[in-house]
Amino acid sequence: MGHLPPTLLPTFHSSIAIFPPGYEASRLYWSMRHGQKRCRYVCSVEEHEGCPEFSIRVIEQGYEDLVLTDTTAKGVWDKVLGPVAERRAETGMLRLFPVYLKGEDLFGLTISAVTRITESLPGVEACSRYRFRYGRNPMLVLPLSINPSGCARSELQTYPHHERSVAAFCKKSNSTVAERGSSHSKHFVHSKSSQYRRLTSDWKTNVYLAHSRIQGLGLFAARDIEKQTMVIEYMGDILRAEVAMRKELLYKAKNRPAYMFRVDSERVIDATRSGSPARYINHSCSPNCVAEVVTFERGHKIIISAARRIERGEEVRKREFTEN
Question: What percent of the chain has pLDDT over 70?
Answer without folding.
Answer: 79
